[in-house]
Design a protein that fits this description.
Chain lengths: ~350, ~400
């Protein structure tokens, strides 16, 4: 079985999709000849031609707006926003147009497209290359939001997203591009090629949108995480000796509530971990769902470990980024109750 | 501070006339009909930049069609065009009344701008796609979209193909080359370019037409559309309807220091033409020219239609609060229906009697459609889309959380 980094898995997914379906087109800033600043589209222009993979002007609004027109025509655009932090000029096109086209025309026009964006911190990218804006998408009716955490899932979910009949926001945790970073920034990261979850078949396969994955089974408490935080939470479980069950949500919307509910009912305790700022973050929605559906099974208040409610800092990055130590402390707090 | 020149001061443009003023448009440079040349399709856009500052006109004061842009349409096609404009005007009048009667929540009429959609529509082929604003109902009339379907949309009744989800006049008909109206302003412009790029990527022959108003040219979407259209030579016609007023804001606020809105195209190397939007024949001829350029893979064209919004922005607007009541009548380009009527009479193929009869015919057709539509329902009464429809079409397949919410709502 070939092993791939997350970058290679994302490139390979687009290669497979473009090979299988002439309607799939790939474009964005620097994605054509150069193959993307993170190399996620390397070689695609050479293989499929300039009319199917090309560079665009630096206009996120234009990239997304043009893709909506193409999707309405009948193509399947898979576009790259160079950093999720650059998405805001396109937000109106995403929220008011892509997300609502099917609804407002009662299905006469639809918008099957994927908007890929590197997301999250841990790369010394400061405030404009580190944000985690997932809640800005999950709050919008008509969008699906996906966050893979392994090369295998990245390929399978991206293929599922490209084949999905509706717009999908595909958030790529850029700190995971080259290895499963667990928050220990002062220690080397194991490269993907030495990790089992980097076994990525050459052929077409999909990972279903809307299904979570239990990454670590446990009895003591449930951790709800996605992206880089899956590894931070797993490290916290291993280091604390607390038998945490780590759920990788993989898709934030539609959310796999059944997997969450089954786990919390089993453990009676819940810790939510995300990089994004806390207030009105996706963790708030998760906490609400858990209390609505698991209230009488809870032994302790739900804990959230998140980025602080500040802009993403530069020199203070590791004070902002949820660390295994902070997650461990949350584990200990929820274990003390009940 | 430079004492000789004094402190800085901010410039805020003002329209020439406000309520109480006597409007005088004698300053508006209006080219004589037939005076503006017609470039070859493949002429270098740098060689006809002057066409972004002139006004292409065909119909002169005597009702004659003159000059290089005349002669494309047969008498029967012109008569159909006149009937289309009259139909739109009659339809608007009935729907304005229906809104006052509470049969719909809101309405936006096309008064004074009928020539633009009705004539442009005749320049397209089946399969081409418009990305319209809320004031291009003429495109649907020209494409023979049923009046009853239009009214069903305005009434949000059970016959509305979009299940009552949109404000009145936000029509959608793929079959008739009319993309779902957003009402968000300008977003559709860059989508039109994307649609056109998709057609070129696919080796198709269909072209797109984007529509925008003078005010919305200030949106970033307009500029993104122009740069994408320019870069990829997209087969698209980029239409700017300059009806002088963006609700209460005169066009000078969006135009700024640019001589004309058409001139915005020059920075992008896009051929840019300016046309008399109240001259059915001129609108059609320029549209045909731009459509043909797109179809020949020669790239985008920007067209500014100089017109005047003779009515309010919408039923929620009272223009007497910000412009003189007489301004519409003083506007120098006249009325599109009367101008085409005069031309057909001058040609001897129409008459005052025939016109009166035609007015009755179009009104009968509108009333018949209205009866049919009201038999289904209006916003007040009759059959409305089901409450269940509220939850449909958010996604192709309803996800569990929405299904649960639908059950909670009682459906």
């Amino acid at each position: 079985m070939p092993r791939r980094t997350m970058i290679e898995a994302i490139q390979n997914a687009q290669d497979v999709a473009m090979g299988a379906d002439a309607r799939v087109v790939v474009f964005g800033e620097d994605v054509g000849y150069f193959g993307g600043v993170f190399r996620c589209t390397a070689g695609l222009q050479k293989k499929y031609g300039k009319h199917r993979c090309f560079d665009t002007p630096i206009s996120e609004l234009g990239i997304v707006g043009a893709a909506i027109g193409m999707a309405a025509y009948g193509l399947r655009p898979c576009i790259e926003i160079q950093f999720a932090d650059y998405m805001y000029p396109a937000y109106d096109q995403i929220v008011s147009e892509a997300a609502r086209l099917r609804y407002r025309s009662a299905g006469e026009f639809t918008c099957p497209m994927v908007i890929r964006m590197p997301t999250g911190g841990g790369i010394h990218g400061a405030q404009t290359h580190s944000q985690s804006p997932e809640a800005l998408f999950t709050h919008v009716a008509g969008l699906k939001t996906v966050v893979p955490s392994t090369p295998y899932d990245a390929k399978g979910l991206l293929l599922a997203a490209i084949e999905d009949p509706d717009p999908v926001i595909f958030l790529e945790p850029k700190r995971l591009y080259n290895g499963p970073f667990d928050g220990h920034h002062d220690m080397p990261v194991t490269p993907w090629k030495k990790h089992d979850l980097s076994e990525v078949p050459d052929d077409h396969y999909t990972v279903p949108i809307g299904k979570a994955s239990v990454r670590r089974e446990g009895q003591a408490l449930t951790v709800l995480a996605y992206g880089t935080m899956v590894y931070v939470a797993t490290a916290a479980a291993e280091e604390s000796g607390i038998d945490a069950e780590v759920i990788d949500l993989r898709t934030l919307l539609p959310l796999d509530e059944e997997t969450i509910v089954a786990s919390v009912k089993k453990t009676g305790r819940c810790v939510i971990v995300h990089e994004a700022t806390r207030t009105s973050g996706f963790g708030a929605e998760l906490a609400a769902i858990v209390q609505e559906r698991c209230f009488y099974h809870l032994e302790a208040p739900i804990e959230r470990v998140t980025g602080w409610d500040t802009p993403y800092p530069h020199a203070q990055e590791w004070d902002y980024f949820p660390s295994p130590a902070r997650v461990r402390e949350a584990f200990e707090r929820v274990m003390q109750e009940g | 501070m430079n004492e000789a020149e004094g402190p800085l001061s901010l410039t805020v443009p003002e329209p020439e006339f406000r309520p109480g003023d006597k409007p005088d448009f004698s300053w508006v440079a209006v080219d004589k009909a037939g005076a503006v040349r017609r470039p070859a399709y493949d002429e270098d856009p740098r060689d006809f930049r002057d066409l972004a500052f002139s006004i292409i006109r065909v119909l002169n004061r005597d009702g004659e069609a003159v000059g290089p842009w005349a002669g494309l349409l047969s008498d029967d096609e012109l008569k159909k065009g006149l009937m289309d404009m009259m139909t739109l005007r009659a339809y608007d009048a009935r729907m304005m009344t229906a809104q006052r009667q509470g049969k719909c929540s809101f309405y936006m009429q096309n008064l004074g701008e009928e020539a633009i959609g009705c004539a442009f529509g005749r320049a397209l082929e089946p399969g081409d796609m418009n990305f319209p604003t809320y004031r291009q109902a003429g495109l649907l009339i020209a494409a023979d979209y049923p009046l009853t379907s239009m009214m069903n949309q305005v009434y949000s009744n059970d016959g509305d193909s979009a299940r009552g989800r949109q404000l009145p006049v936000f029509y959608s008909s793929k079959e008739h080359g009319f993309f779902s109206v957003s009402g968000n302003l300008a977003t559709q412009y860059v989508q039109a370019v994307g649609w056109a790029m998709a057609s070129a990527i696919s080796g198709d022959s269909r072209i797109a037409a984007g529509w925008i108003g003078d005010g919305s040219t200030a949106e970033s979407d307009f500029h993104a559309a122009l740069v994408f259209a320019s870069t990829y030579k997209a087969p698209v016609v980029l239409n700017v309807v300059n009806n002088q007023w963006a609700i209460s804001t005169f066009q000078g606020i969006a135009r700024g220091g640019s001589g004309t809105l058409a001139a915005r195209g020059h920075g992008f190397g896009i051929p840019s033409l300016r046309v008399d939007g109240n001259d059915f024949i001129a609108v059609h001829a320029v549209a045909k020219w731009a459509v043909e350029r797109a179809r020949r893979n020669l790239g985008p064209t920007l067209v500014e239609y100089v017109t005047y919004r003779a009515g309010g922005h919408s039923t929620s607007d009272d223009p007497s609060a910000y412009r003189p009541k007489e301004e519409s009548a003083a506007w120098p380009l006249g009325d599109p229906v009367l101008r085409l009527k005069a031309h057909l009479i001058a040609k001897g193929v129409w008459s005052e009697e025939r016109h009166v009869q035609a007015e009755a015919e179009v009104m009968d057709a509108v009333i018949a459609a209205q009866k049919e539509s009201e038999a289904i329902g209006t916003l007040q009464s009759g059959r409305l889309p089901s409450q269940r429809d509220l939850f449909e079409d958010v996604f192709e397949t309803m996800p569990p959380h929405l299904l649960r919410q639908r059950h909670q709502s009682g459906y």
